[in-house]
Write a structure and sequence with these properties.
Largest sheet: 7 strands, mixed
Radius of gyration: 20 Å
CATH class of the largest domain: Alpha Beta
Strand content: 25-35%
Number of strands: 15
Number of domains: 2
Order of helices and strands: EEEHEEEEHEHEHEHEHEHEHHEHE
Length: 327
């Protein structure tokens, strides 16, 4: 038996509960992992509440990432005792995820835990930090360098935004943080933000072409925020978009893309190829300051997870929620 969060579908919608689960109910897979740490991400909030109906079958264990130790393996790359992590691949949507004390997954999904990280630190990074690193790498591949000018990060106090700020500032970029939580100014500046702007200035419909301000941007909001960011990026710049906190829509025109030679990159963390995943985790181990990472972390028990789902969707969670699944 092991403890897990289970999401089922009742008459009133999705219902999440903490339950004891028999090992025999674990899904198919060639590697069984004893999970030590997981996280609560924005997407986990969506999965547990049914805000967007992403779950393919019930009951489902949510949790889009986890770190732990291999207990049993029929996969040639893994043996008992190996320290591993995983994120994406439909965990929590199509396959039982990480908000549990045990998981069974495909060995092809696993990444070796970087030597620089403990399991707790790896989940402090989690999918949010991995997505942030993919965004940074996207801007780098576009050719944006620190000398080119300011980089805007939206959703700055969330998981992706917080780690993006820490990574970019550590690499020498001047980072401007867009946030609706001015009380987090000291936190964001400690992560490396040089300047803060009110997210409200981006959240409403705006002109299709606005004053050029940013060499590039990382956006976690979508909707009008992303449209306004695009209207403000300088000629030849780029946006790495990886979120939908404001909405799925994109009420934009083609003008900034044509007239300013702007690039909009979608950044996917779920199905990225393994070579890119390993590169991102290697870069995180090298480029992310451990002290800054720890400053983002709030650790909770598995029994506290369900109550945090509406909090993270409402934008009331700062940084990273790390779950000690043993408690």
């Amino acid at each position: 038996m092991f403890n897990a969060i289970l999401v089922d579908k009742g008459e009133g919608g999705y219902v999440a509960s903490l339950a004891a689960v028999e090992d025999a109910r674990l899904p198919e897979g060639d590697v069984t992992v004893r999970i030590t740490y997981s996280t609560v991400n924005y997407k986990d909030g969506l999965l547990m509440t049914g805000r967007i109906p992403l779950i393919s079958h019930f009951p489902m264990v949510p949790g889009i990432d986890f770190a732990g130790t291999v207990e049993a393996s029929d996969h040639p790359d893994w043996k008992p005792g190996d320290a591993v992590l995983v994120n994406g691949y439909g965990l929590g949507e199509r396959h039982w995820g990480g908000l549990a004390q045990r998981a069974r997954v495909k060995g092809d999904w696993l990444v070796p835990l970087p030597a620089a990280f403990t399991p707790r630190q790896a989940m402090a990074v989690g999918t949010a930090g991995y997505a942030a690193m993919l965004c940074v790498m996207t801007l780098e591949r576009h050719g944006i360098e620190p000398a080119d000018g300011d980089i805007l990060v939206t959703g700055a106090s969330g998981g992706v935004g917080s780690i993006a700020i820490a990574l970019l500032s550590g690499l020498g970029y001047r980072v401007v943080a867009a946030t609706g939580r001015p009380q987090e100014a000291d936190y964001l500046k400690a992560l490396g933000a040089a300047e803060l702007i009110d997210r409200a200035t981006l959240a409403s419909p705006g002109e299709p072409m606005q004053a050029e301000r940013w060499a590039g941007a990382i956006d976690t909001a979508g909707s009008h925020t992303l449209v306004n960011v695009a209207a403000q990026v300088r000629y030849g710049g780029a946006i790495a978009a990886t979120g939908l906190a404001q909405g799925l829509d994109l009420p934009a025109t083609v003008l900034p893309f044509i007239l300013r030679n702007l690039a909009l990159y979608g950044v996917d963390s779920v199905n990225a190829p393994m070579a890119l995943r390993r590169e991102a985790w290697s870069r995180l181990a090298r480029d992310l300051d451990a002290a800054r990472l720890e400053s983002m972390v709030r650790e909770i028990r598995l029994s506290e997870v369900i109550g945090m789902a509406p909090e993270i969707l409402a934008g009331r969670v700062r940084g990273r929620l790390v779950v000690d699944v043993g408690n």
